[in-house]
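Posting this for the archive.
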Amino acid sequence: MKKVVFILCFGILGATLSLFLGVSFADAQLVAPSSPSPADGATAEQPVTLQWSRADFPEGVSGGYIVELQGQNIARQPRWAPENSYVIPQNLLVGAPYQWRVTTCFGSGISSFSDCGPWSNNGNDWKFTATLAKPTLDSPLNTTRKAAFIGSDPQCLGSIKLQWKKVVGADRYNVVLNRTSGTTFSKTFEDIKRLYPTVFKEEGSSISFCIPQDGAWIKPLSFYNWRVIPFQASKPGIQSDTWEFFAATSPTTPPTTPPTIKFDDFFITSILPSTGSLAGGTEVTISGKGFKTGTTVLFGGSFGTMIKVSADGISITVKTPSRDAPGIVTVRVTDPQATDGRSVTGNFQYTEAPLPPGLQAPPLEPGLQARPLEPGLQARPLEPGLQARPLEPGLQAPPLEPGLQAPPLEPGAAPPPGIFGVVDRAANVAFTALIIAAIIFVLVAAFQFLTGGGNPEAISGARDKLIWAAVGIAIALVSKGVAVILQTSLGLPSTEAKPGGSCPGPAPSGGIQNPLNTICFSGLLDSILNVIFTLSLIVVPFVVIYAGFLFVTGGGNPQQISRARDTLIWAAVGFGVILISKGLPFILKDILGI
């Protein structure tokens, strides 16, 4: 008996402990939701969807959220949300404040939840203000390049139908209509649902409104823009975007030769040319009378691009719009100042046929052609990034008369240099001056040697002049090489005139190709020096690094430090010789004319 009582007591204790530990474990897994949307203090458009961070429930355990919402027309009470969002079903009051909070719970509904975690925001409410969403406009399309036809909708005979999406929470709408051509105006149709019930229609998620005809608000061939403002009671929401449209009469299929409407002071006499490409862009001159600034021209319902109206009003120049298929279209010219929107018409034909022979550039006459360049003269290639502009279609340079030709370029002639060309020419002047000065120094030194008579002072002065002459020549050669290297590295065009023309590459043949890509001495010299210069750029850095290594690891050893110094000196001397070699070919070319 004692054993039975002991087992029962132990079982009750274990069950109690397990329940306590299980509840504590469950509480430990539930955290307060965060990341609210709408954010605290924000304005929310209706319909409002509350969102927050998602909780991770243990596998096999159901859970959800309890939301408490409160406002002027909503009492605070718990609402169950199976996911981490809740769509408020009621219409909220515009401008009114609302507050809410949320907690995470185990369970599957408002009547079956068991344990919940802490409330969001430490138990405090998040707040937001409700407003109406911005209306989304549907039609007419927001374009003045395609006409909105009057009476095209059976519900709006003699008028234009405006259509937009219904706004949640709105109980009335105002429509603002502006005419932007001819006699302009701005008209606001207020509370259209109540004041214009015969032209207002609410169907599904869309609202339509036929512009009333009581004030002749819509006139053919006029430009308009419009927008919608939603209201809840007397409080407005966010107004829609402003859309534009062009009102025109209903389209009809024009006959092959449509009748021409004519007034005494406003008419068309001709349209030239009367045909054009489907791609559009044909420049057309319409002649007649009574044309004014602001006159519009339609080609089969699409606007042409106006170029100019003559001062005397007898011609219009316009570019045709593009079209999908060939055929004859009606050209409609509208008087912008007439109150009745009067217009006159003509014909224009779109075609895919090529231009007639008379509108093409004529071929050169027999015996007229460009004369070849004289031997030794050739056109210089265009600088990198430059190219000749192509002639416009139908245009070409007139042929030269017999016996006449453009004078050839003088040898070495070049187009005006750019900034680098000016600097390069200045360097050439300095180079020439250094060479001349060096030659003078050599001549003076030679004269001192010959006339010194063994005088140590004269011999020393002559030696100094020879040294300075050598230094000057070396500086000139190095500067020339550096200029060439910078020019090549930066991709700048050469500004030097090249005597004797350029060195051509090898002529193509069916045999073995020339690997040097040149057939003259100067080109061969350039190729060899370019290879040496490229190798030096690779080798010199390694030599300098090696010398630095010797300096660092010398440890005061005079022999190793001397070896490092000699290595640096010979690297500098070698690189200087390579720079001189880059400038030397240009001097040889200038002197020898190669």
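The domain at 27-131 is CATH 2.60.40.10 (Immunoglobulin-like). The chain has four domains: 27-131, 137-248, 267-353, 420-502+515-592.
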